Backbone:
């Protein structure tokens, strides 16, 4: 299968590319600059989609970049890096002489309202209560191509755990020094997924013709994981204590109130349709996932 991947050089994109190529698929990235097995976004807009069987979009500025101050300029970048790239790919798919068979977009569980008790499946409502939920709604709406023969799949991902990037890369140093701990109360749900499973779900969606619609990209044990549990499990995997909680006011000071919600609140999300579609998780439980990443 020939697969075009927007954002293919990022953290998830590298893992997905490796998996697809190991399964015999050809991968072309869409990124800021062209090159070998790569075209630029400008080239895509100008010349259209190269011949392909499937398209994936993973593009998006890192929302939780601690080095970027949250404000109008950065929030506009966060929106355009997701919504505009999705629109560009959707437009190219619609205009293609030979439409690809599958079109997969990876968004986020920020679509669902944070709650300590509510559990969400792919059919649960959301998408209209704060900046991030409305962002996911706009992002997913940008992917819609009326009348297209391309099979559409949206994977709503939790916090992606893996080596060499993502959430854990920022946490390893304090945890290795014995200075890690829960954020705020630590009671908030922590929806997570191992990077190999997120890549696996996207690959599954591309290869299995019957998969369509929304899939939640979270581990099956994720609804039972709190931020405090995650901190304890990560510390245990590193052989360190997790005794230093980070007060909520510190999180708000570093990330700004709007972004801090993503860390201080969370959602219990179930991968109901993902499991029903026949996907088998490689890392269904947190201890196994963390052992693989930091062991």
Residues:
């Amino acid at each position: 299968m020939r697969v075009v991947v927007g954002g293919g050089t990022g953290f998830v994109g590298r893992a997905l590319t490796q998996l697809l190529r190991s399964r015999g698929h050809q991968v072309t990235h869409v990124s800021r600059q062209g090159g070998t097995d790569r075209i630029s976004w400008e080239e895509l807009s100008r010349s259209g989609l190269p011949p392909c069987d499937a398209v994936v979009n993973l593009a998006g500025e890192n929302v939780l970049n601690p080095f970027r101050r949250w404000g109008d300029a950065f929030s506009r970048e966060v929106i355009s890096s997701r919504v505009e790239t999705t629109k560009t790919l959707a437009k190219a798919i619609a205009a293609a002489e030979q439409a690809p068979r599958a079109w997969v977009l990876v968004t986020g569980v920020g679509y669902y309202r944070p709650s300590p008790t509510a559990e969400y499946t792919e059919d649960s409502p959301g998408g209209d209560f704060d900046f991030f939920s409305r962002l996911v709604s706009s992002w997913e709406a940008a992917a819609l191509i009326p009348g297209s023969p391309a099979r559409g799949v949206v994977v709503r991902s939790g916090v992606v755990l893996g080596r060499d990037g993502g959430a854990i890369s920022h946490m390893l140093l304090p945890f290795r020094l014995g200075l890690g701990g829960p954020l705020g109360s630590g009671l908030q749900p922590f929806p997570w997924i191992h990077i190999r499973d997120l890549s696996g779900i996207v690959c599954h969606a591309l290869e299995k013709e019957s998969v369509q619609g929304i899939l939640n990209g979270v581990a099956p044990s994720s609804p039972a994981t709190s931020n405090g549990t995650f901190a304890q499990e990560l510390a245990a995997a590193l052989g360190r204590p997790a005794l230093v909680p980070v007060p909520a006011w510190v999180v708000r000071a570093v990330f700004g109130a709007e972004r801090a919600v993503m860390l201080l609140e969370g959602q219990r999300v179930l991968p109901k349709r993902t499991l029903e579609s026949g996907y088998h998780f490689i890392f269904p439980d947190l201890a196994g996932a963390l052992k693989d990443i930091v062991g």
About this structure: The mean pLDDT is 95. The CA atoms of residues 13 and 277 lie 23 Å apart. The longest strand covers residues 102-108. The radius of gyration is 19 Å.
